[in-house]
Each structure stands twice: as C-alpha cells, then as structure tokens.
Amino acid sequence: MSGDVLVRLRTMMSNLPRAEQAIARRVLDDPGATAEMTISELAQLCGTSETTVTRFCRSIGLRGYAQLRLHLAAEAERLRADDRADTALGGDIGRDDSLTELIKKVGFADARAVEDTVAHLDVSVLDALVTAILSATRIDVYGVGSTATVAQDAAYKLHRAGRPAAAWSDVHAALMSASTLTTGDVALAISHSGRTREILDALAEAKRRGATTAVITSNPQSPAAELAGLVLTTAARETTFRSGGTASRTAQLTVVDCIYVALSHRRYDESLEAMERAHDAVRGHVLPFDRQGR
Fold first, then answer.
1. Cα maximum dimension of the chain
2. Which CATH number goes with the domain that contains 257?
3. Which of 61, 109, 121, 177 has the fewest CB atoms within 10 Å, measured from its CB?
4. Where is the HTH rpiR-type domain (predicted)?
C-alpha cells in the first residue's frame, strides 16, 4: 500500500490543483524527510495551509496526514535502494541529454510503468471484466488521440480470442454504437487522464443503455472512473514529451495484454483453436524463410 501512494501521486500529479501539486512534488522529492515533518511544517514548506495538505491527502485516497506519514515512512527504506537508478534514468528529458541517455530514459520509464502497473493491478476487477467479456454479445472499446491505437489493439486481441469487439475513435461513431448496446454488452474506455470529453460521453451513453462499463486510466478518482463500474488503474511517469503518451501507452497496452491473456486462459482450449485458425487464415500472406533462415 505504501508504494501505491507514490505511484498514485506520480500518475495523478497533472490532475491535482496547483497547490496540491506543490505538495505532491515535495513528497516525491523526499518521501523519507516528508514522513518526519508535522503537517504545519509541510504546509509552510510548500507555501500553503494545513487544510490544503489535508485535502491533498484525501485527493489521493487517504484519510489524513497521519496515514500519509505512515505510508511514506514504510516506503522510504525501499526507495533508498532505488535512488541511484531513479536519479540517473528516472528524471525528465533534458535539453542536453545524449541520444544514448534518451534511449535509456525511455526504456526505464516504460519498464517502470509496466512494473508499477502490474504490481498494483486490481486482480478482482480484472477477473470481473473478463467474466463480463466472456458473456457479452458485443464489446465496444473507446479511445481517442494517443489511446486510439490502444483501443484498436484491444479490439484486435479480443477478436483473436473469439470475442465480438469493435474499436471506436470517432466520437459520433462511438456514441451511435454505444446507443445500441444493451444489458450484457461491455463498453471498455481507455483514457490516461480519465477526463477526455469524448470518452466520458460514450461511456455515459453505454451505461444508460445497461452495458457493463469499464475504464483503463491512471486516475482512479477521475470522472471516467466514477462513471465506470470497473476501473483498472495504470501507473506511468510521463516526461517532458507527454503529448506522445509514451509511458502511459505502454502501461495501457500492458493492461490490455493482461485482459487478453486472462481471457484466453479462461477459455484455454477454445483460445488455442481460435489462434490456430487465425494463423492458418493468414499463412498464405507470410513469405516463407529461405534455406538460410532469412
């Protein structure tokens, strides 16, 4: 749970009010030192009030400052072991970074996104979503912008597992499809912030029609998370080039892979047969290897 607080802070940072972002930065900069501060000391250091610190704690799902201090104290020791790698590779993209440094930072961010996402993925929610997908007559997947390709990947994998899925990135098409869903169908939305208007509109329409609603998001307290019946949370620290959605996309694809593998495992024999049929169907479109294995 202690590590979960820091993961939550990193993923929710951009969605917090400015005053709470200042507190979050201080906590992430030195969790151990923060754990030793009183609430008034932290408030003064961040140039804010004790009330804002308490509000910040509740924003990240804690009861209050005392609980935050407990989590930070428990996490401080583990972080000391990770500090060297995190300092070298976990920082933001710098203007003077070499190409080698850029590659290492991207790899580190993606690997950490996968590690943190898997470590804190709610297995019971994943299991419930797989159960809903197995019995669904139709499955809609919504994603816009950088999540559109993730939605397409999810629909592709669900098709490969023999489930009737379609990905929608156009808001009008998504709304039309959502309006025809019924009880027993599934609507899966993908949104890093959980605040994308097009995603919220499609998800709300699917919910009105009685479909099981789910979202993959980094913000478990976002409007999309409040709207969805099932919430799968990702963890990703974005760099300066956030618009590319690099680490967040990696985390989302990891969750999609978990859904696909869990679904295939639940229908083990049927999934193997479906994959074999798919392989046979495209076999003629793949060039054979030559004698040198090329």
1. 73
2. 3.40.50.10490
3. 61
4. 3-79
